[in-house]
Design goal:
The complex is a heterotrimer of chains A (about 450), B (about 350) and C (about 300).
Chain A: H1 2-23, E1 44-51, H2 57-73, E2 77-84, H3 89-98, E3 106-110, H4 114-119, H5 127-132, H6 141-145, E4 148-149, E5 152-153, E6 156-161, E7 163-168, H7 169-174, H8 183-196, H9 210-219, E8 225-228, E9 231-234, H10 239-249, H11 259-262, H12 267-275, E10 281-285, H13 289-293, E11 301-304, E12 317-318, E13 320-326, H14 333-343, H15 346-356, E14 359-360, H16 363-372, H17 377-384, E15 387-388, H18 394-401, H19 404-413, H20 419-437
Parallel strand pairs in A: 1-2, 1-3, 12-15
Antiparallel strand pairs in A: 3-13, 4-5, 6-13, 6-14, 7-10, 7-11, 8-9
Helix pairs in contact in A: 2-14, 2-15, 9-10, 15-16, 18-20, 19-20
Chain B: H1 2-12, H2 23-27, H3 49-75, E1 78-79, H4 82-85, E2 92-93, H5 97-104, H6 106-139, H7 142-157, H8 160-170, H9 177-184, H10 199-227, H11 231-239, H12 244-272, H13 276-281, H14 294-304, H15 308-335
Antiparallel strand pairs in B: 1-2
Chain C: H1 26-55, H2 58-61, H3 76-85, H4 87-118, H5 124-136, H6 143-156, H7 166-190, H8 193-201, H9 206-235, H10 238-243, H11 253-259, H12 268-302
Helix pairs in contact in C: 1-12, 3-12, 4-7, 4-9, 5-7, 7-9, 7-12, 8-9, 9-12, 11-12
Classes of the chains: A alpha+beta (about 450), B mainly alpha (about 350), C mainly alpha (about 300).
């Protein structure tokens, strides 16, 4: 008797809930009105999100300088700069899109995310301002493409990110090694270094370093996806892609970079390991230079383009680059654009090169610094030999934030799945993302 | 508490005929004997007063708990991804599609299995450690007792984020003292051993931390329970020549049962919902997601992948599982004739 | 539940008279005490290591040969934490959030507990069951609808939307209320009803009785309850992580701590110093209320 009375007491509210749920589908959770704000306040605080780099101090210094210059010009404004971790940027950015009121005004974003962010309605269309910007003339068509969607401009290119092979000159000399000219030589060198220096990684490559892996896939003739008509289809499970991927994941093994440590390594961590003197080689970018200079390997490293499978071929690099954009919901549009044009302008691109090694995106600045520094040579060489890019679709943002590719690599290096099985699974997930993006 | 338990024991001595009494009577043992029901204060026509007192609580709960739970259920029936949130595409009622997608996904079943096994392991270890230490507390003098109590309070007070951080550091492959000690003890396999690399070693590490920060609740509560057992009962049992086992079975166990039910249920609820530890210690779910539990899985689906509908469906599944636990709890309470 | 075979007997002095708690024979007791001390040390070790690492110089923290002591204690890590990370600000934010949750939930739970204990009315049991079920709701699963709720609330009521401390206080209030009500019932019950009758006869109004008689008597219970509300609000990093979007000045301690986790290399000294700063207030609070806590737990257990 008591049992029934108790369950009755429970059943009533439960039933009410279910009923309410079934009948009230009309009042779905509201969507954010991600419309452009009509307000354009000329004073107050503008919030800026920039990425936290491996060695962030020099970046902060340059940005501080820019902020000082900016606030001198606009005396009643404050610029609040936050450095956000690249790994969790997707979460932060989406939260910002979901509540434009709480969003920052200016953001740094990777060119792989342009399509996704625009699709989510997060970035402001600044085509008009871009047209009037004095530095716009130094933006090449292909670089402009990386900040544009359907002919509209959504940002200012800040720097070009190209990766190449860093190696330890002292270790190579000690072991009588030559800078690797093929991927086979690269593996041999890695094994030698690990064997002679068991406390070092032969090469610090990680299962989370997507942009370090891609050149291996591309140089083997594979790709992440193929474009057929308007839609992409995953190609990471093709024979060529698998071959290239295997060349890379074979480096993450006991005899060069043990998976216990390297399965969790991303690009930044790989660079840091090398900078700390714990690796014989690393795949790093132009933007990693200052981290090396401030690390234990200062004066003991050199850079060559990442070799291909055969001699005389350079592996196609990922055409990375970071941009500065204005958020669509900003209530300080004019100020935000001003700040973007200042920090993204020639003067500060040049300063960022001096501070970090970031290769300027503006051609005139690029030429200027190329004369100055022999450091840029391997990167320019890599750029000239041709670069490749990830699928230009909003689905890539999703694939990226779901960590499809890192998960695939981790499954392979931890021995949980074969290359075939892991790539097949990844391809399935990618295709699902492509089809849901339409 | 001693005073509270005594009448319950006295009640147990009553003739078996008691069980035949109407159920409502059993629901409210407090009403029995001590004072006549009519003496229960101004309770005959309370009118609106109780609702007035309840109003703030009900308002907060309705707005901030019931409504979000309702929304959670609602979103789980919708196609609700970033495009819908941003207003790019209309939301669409898709019935059980999210659930169907979930149940088709191998990873979900894997995560569910890990969650249940991990929670079970945590609950059992926490209870075993907590209860044995509670018994230990009753057998020692003041100084060691205070030491253990203080240490336990310290572990209890440590926030999960800091606790997780410290434990990860203790087990760090190169800087952590644990590997050094294990190597020093002759277990050379632990030199530079990475605890977070393997699925089971990572879960073990998290389990150790969870037990460390949650056994104090069990220990202190059970200890309070043991202390509350009326000494006369134990004395009398000893006079009767009852064995230790018999004393435990006949006196301690029935008296401690409500305490044990509470700590078990609370442990289940807490350990099933472990979030911070997994998130911090395995860096959001471990290598290739091997250490995901439902809670973290739902969070990743919703906030990293923007699959809000799918994330909500996982949330609903969790809620239903915990609700089942609650029902078991209510049944146990009721069987004891507990007054709500 | 079988009835224990206890028969009342005239009290006679006995050789077997057992003091309470039952003490085992001497060697066993010594072994038990040794075990208790060792276990206490093991349990306290992580905390010791945390504080130690916070005071160690950088080189010793990240050393291949960690030592369980340091000869050069220093405050560098704390300086890093407070200067670089503005921990002071986050500390205050955390205090504001936890404090507001504690005070509000104590007041609201006190009223609610009084209602369900001192009155009989329709739906009373249903309500109690709802309070119990509410405790089972997984906070993390609700982060999704909470996010949208807070966003919309922010449009209607400025000051509680996303990015503000209000968006942290409200959810915690909701999540700590059910347990607080559940726990407070025991304390309200423990206050004799005759007191209320006496007050009524003296002509005190119900409100006066409530605040001037009942409230002070239940205060110890409120303190015990507040430990749980405080801890849940103080420790949480899910809501600040999801709700404090760009307003770093409204961040709380757990978020600030996560900043020290860097993909490349963790600043363990800073992390440990931050952890120490974060743990200390909770520990102090705990030690202050530990007596009440134990009796509070017993009360909640008894229900």
């Amino acid at each position: 008797m008591k049992r029934s009375s108790l369950s009755l007491r429970l059943a009533a509210p439960a039933a009410a809930l279910v009923l309410a749920g079934l009948t009230a589908t009309a009042c779905a959770p509201s969507t954010s009105s991600n419309t452009e704000s009509t307000k354009d306040s000329k004073s107050g605080t503008i919030r800026v999100w920039l990425f936290r780099e491996v060695n962030n101090a020099p970046k902060e210094k340059v940005v501080k300088e820019a902020v000082a210059e900016f606030t001198k010009k606009h005396s009643d404004t404050r610029v609040d700069v936050t450095y956000i971790p690249i790994e969790t940027r997707a979460e932060k950015m989406k939260a910002a899109f979901n509540d434009p009121k709480s969003a920052p005004d200016v953001v740094e974003f990777g060119n792989t995310d342009t399509a996704g962010y625009v699709n989510d309605g997060g970035l402001a269309d600044i085509t008009a301002e871009f047209g009037k910007w004095e530095d716009a003339k130094s933006v090449t068509a292909s670089v402009k493409e990386s900040v544009s969607v359907a002919g509209k401009v959504y940002g200012v290119p800040w720097y070009v990110g190209v990766r190449a092979l860093y190696y330890r000159t002292d270790i190579f000399k000690e072991l009588g090694l030559k800078p690797p000219a093929t991927q086979g030589e690269l593996a041999t060198a890695a094994h030698r270094i690990r064997a002679e220096h068991p406390d070092m990684f032969g090469i610090s490559v990680g299962a989370k370093n997507v942009y370090g892996m891609l050149p291996f896939v591309w140089s083997a003739g594979g790709d992440l996806a193929e474009k057929r008509g308007d839609t992409y289809t995953a190609a990471i499970d093709s024979a060529a892609s698998r071959k290239g991927l295997k060349t890379y994941t074979d480096l993450i093994a006991k005899d060069s970079c043990p998976p216990e440590q390297c399965a969790e390594l991303g690009g930044d961590a790989g660079v840091q390991t090398f900078a700390g003197g714990k690796a014989g080689m690393a795949i790093g970018g132009d933007f990693s230079r200052q981290a090396m200079e401030d690390g234990a390997v200062k004066g003991k490293y050199a850079v060559v383009p990442l070799p291909g499978p055969q001699k005389g071929v350079i592996s196609p690099a990922f055409a990375g680059g970071n941009n500065l954009g204005v958020m669509r919901g900003t209530t300080h549009r004019t100020l935000a654009v001003d700040f973007v044009e200042l920090l993204g302008g020639g003067a500060y691109q040049s300063k960022m090169f001096d501070a970090m090694g970031n290769m300027p995106a503006l051609t005139d600045v690029q030429e200027k610094v190329a004369d100055k520094a022999p450091f840029t040579k391997p990167f320019v060489e890599t750029l000239k030999s041709g670069t490749k890019f990830v699928p230009v679709t909003s689905a890539w943002s999703k694939i990226d934030s779901e960590a499809v590719i890192p998960t695939m690599m981790q499954e392979i290096v931890s021995g949980r799945k074969s290359v075939d099985a892991a790539t097949a699974d990844a391809a399935k997930k990618m295709d699902a993302a492509f089809s849901s993006a339409g | 508490m001693a005073r509270d338990i005594a009448p319950a024991v006295a009640g147990a001595e009553q003739p078996p005929g008691r069980d035949a009494r109407p159920a409502r009577r059993r629901l409210r043992p407090a009403a029995r004997g001590n004072r006549p029901p009519a003496g229960r204060g101004p309770r005959h026509h309370p009118g609106w007063t109780p609702w007035l007192y309840l109003a703030p609580a009900l308002m907060v709960l309705a707005g901030l708990l019931v409504y979000p739970v309702y929304q959670l259920g609602l979103i789980s029936f919708l196609r609700y991804t970033q495009a819908q949130v941003s207003g790019g595409r209309p939301t669409e009622f898709i019935g059980f599609d999210n659930y169907a997608a979930l149940f088709r996904d191998d990873q979900f079943w894997q995560v569910l299995l890990s969650t249940v096994l991990f929670a079970a392991a945590c609950v059992l270890s926490t209870l075993a450690v907590g209860c044995s230490l509670a018994v230990l507390l009753t057998k020692v003098r003041a100084v060691p007792r205070t030491m253990l109590l203080l240490a336990a309070l310290g572990a209890w007070a440590t926030p999960p984020v800091t606790g997780s951080t410290v434990w990860v550091f203790l087990f760090d492959s190169s800087f952590g003292p644990v590997n050094k000690v294990l190597t020093w003890l002759g277990l050379s396999g632990f030199e530079d051993y990475s605890w977070t690399y393997g699925k089971y070693s990572a879960f073990t590490l998290v389990l150790l931390e969870v037990v460390w920060c949650s056994f104090p609740f069990v220990m202190v509560t059970v200890y309070a329970g043991i202390r509350a057992v009326p000494p006369e009962l134990l004395e009398a049992a000893a006079l009767d020549g009852a064995s230790t086992w018999r004393t435990w079975r006949s006196i301690m166990a029935p008296l401690l049962r409500p305490v044990l039910v509470i700590v078990t249920i609370q442990s289940i609820i807490w350990d099933f919902k472990v979030f911070g530890q997994i998130y911090v210690m395995t860096n959001g779910g471990g290598i290739a997601g091997q250490n995901l539990v439902l809670n973290v899985y739902a969070y990743q689906k919703a906030f990293a992948s923007s699959e809000y509908g799918l994330g909500s469906a996982i949330g609903v599944v969790m809620l239903l599982i915990l609700l089942a636990v609650t029902l078991v709890y209510l049944r146990l309470l009721r069987r004891q004739g507990e007054d709500l | 539940m079988s009835a224990p075979p206890v028969s009342p007997r005239p009290h006679t002095p006995s050789r077997f008279r057992l003091p309470r708690p039952r003490r085992p024979a001497r060697p066993w007791r010594l072994a038990a005490e040794a075990a208790a001390v060792v276990i206490a040390l093991v349990v306290a070790f992580p905390l010791y290591w945390m504080v130690l690492s916070a005071f160690k110089p950088e080189g010793e923290v990240q050393s291949a040969h960690p030592r369980p002591w340091t000869l050069h204690p220093q405050l560098d890590a704390f300086r890093r934490v407070f200067v670089q990370q503005d921990f002071g600000r986050y500390f205050v934010n955390s205090l504001v959030v936890a404090g507001a949750v504690v005070v509000l939930s104590a007041l609201i739970a006190f009223l609610a507990a009084t209602a369900v204990v001192r009155f009989r009315f329709r739906f009373r049991t249903t309500l109690l069951i709802m309070f119990l079920i509410a405790q089972m709701v997984p906070v993390e699963a609700l982060a999704i609808p909470m996010f949208f709720l807070m966003r919309d609330l922010g449009t209607a009521v400025p000051g509680v939307g996303l990015n503000t401390l209000g968006s942290l206080i409200l959810p915690h209030l909701a999540f700590s209320l059910p347990f607080a009500i559940w726990m407070l019932r025991g304390f309200v019950k423990a206050v004799p009803e005759t007191l209320e009758e006496a007050a009524m006869i003296d002509g005190a109004s119900r409100a006066r009785f409530l605040w001037q008689v009942l409230f002070p008597l239940v205060l110890p219970g409120l303190v015990a309850t507040s430990v749980f509300s405080f801890i849940s609000a103080w420790n949480d990093f899910l809501f600040p992580k999801s709700f404090i979007i760009s307003a770093t000045e409204n961040s709380t301690l757990p978020m600030a701590l996560l900043v020290f986790f860097k993909p490349e290399q963790n600043d363990w000294g800073g992390i440990m110093a931050g952890s120490t700063v974060m743990t200390l207030p909770v520990l102090v609070f705990f030690v202050l209320v530990q007596r009440r806590l134990v009796s509070g737990l017993a009360g909640a257990v008894k229900g």
